[in-house]
Specification:
The complex is a heterodimer of chains A (376) and B (85). With 376 residues, chain A is of the alpha/beta class. In chain A, 42% of the residues lie in helices and 19% in strands. The longest helix of chain A is centred in the middle third of the chain and has 33 residues. Classes of the chains: A alpha/beta (376), B alpha+beta (85).
Chain lengths: 376, 85
Amino acid sequence: MKSPQIIMETGAHAAALAVKSARVDVVPGYPITPQTSIMEAIAAMVENGEMNARFIPVEGEHSAMAAAVAASAAGARVFTATSANGLLYMHEVLHMASGGRLPVVMCNVNRGIFAPWTLWADHQDSFAQRDTGWIQYHCSSNQEVFNTILQAFRVAEQINVPVMVNFDGFAISHCLMPLAIPPQEDIDRFLPLHEPEWRLDPTHPSSFSNVTNAAEYAPFRRMLSDDILASIALTKKAAQEYQEITGMWDGDTIDTYRLEDAEVVAFAINSMAAELKLSVDILREQGIKAGLLRPRLYLPFPAEDIISVLPQNAQVMVLDRNYNFGHQGGILASELKSALHGRRNDITVKNRVMGIGGIDLTRRFMAAEIRAMMDE
Amino acid sequence: MKSVTKEHRPISWPTKGSGGDTGSWRTHRPVVDIKKCTKCQFCWVYCPEAVIEREEITIDYQYCKGCGVCALECPVGAISMEKEE
């Protein structure tokens, strides 16, 4: 058995290498900071023949997703990437990918939304797409970005639902970390070539996403809702199969750290959750029984898995890198409260918004925030 | 997990009349004067609904919407639009 190749790479290049490893056929792309380095790397690999794919430069993100939808409907394995306002510009076509049941995989490199302009990370962009019918993963390391893109294609193609793989701009996209790339034959075993049971085919003409009457439309929406929920079980299965083949594990629907006996649980996603492991260590040194629960899957929200692992009577400190406008605090806290309602009345949920527009979230800062929240 | 088959996708295959009896939309019907007709087939080419038979130049009134394009395009004036009762 061949061992993985270990290199130093940025999160953006880790994503590009995963796209190459996944043997993606078509990549429509439009540049936007901080995603641009993914598209640059893919364009270079297509140009120099390392990657056997069609790269389609388009005039904007709405067109990027339209090209992705068309290529996926024609039976191709499709990837694209965007950030912030690019993602917002795609919004309408995101619905076409999910409603059309097309297994497109897209990276969204998280960045705050204008106005005013910011280039740095928060999670308002991806959370604003919550109701588009896309599955959403949030990654906390370069390696997890690589692994999750492969798992995303596996899940997407099993249920024909598009998947968004999110990771923070700059903190992940532009930072070098060691990256293990499994042998290509192992990746091929995990992710076989894409063979859809239907595709647009001029020799057998069909009409795609035609007008439906109410009796026809409603079942499509119900089936989409059911299949998005089915992705929870498929996410676990994909993570397990990936681990069996590559030996790597990032968690499945959730990831935990020192959680078993925790009385204070930090609850956050993406890169800040990696830093929070160090905050947990600081709090433990101070005699506080702290732990971490990181949802890797944001949509569908893994409510059952969260409910089953939270220790009895825990105080959960939700650290949100976004605003839930019209409410106090952030969106993740609302999701958690909704999941716990009537199921775990022993749990106390506290919430703070932080790290907006890329404000640095250090281990000491977050440990201090959690200590302060304990007294609230 | 529910099974996912192609029935879960919004795909339709073209069939005659899948849009209903569109002939009921018509306010004027095209009538072909076969004595004037030269069988040039312009009407067949231009009909947006493909309801004109190519050889005999007969019109399928169950689906003809009465748009009048055939009457406009006919180079010899063999098609007239007559008000529906």
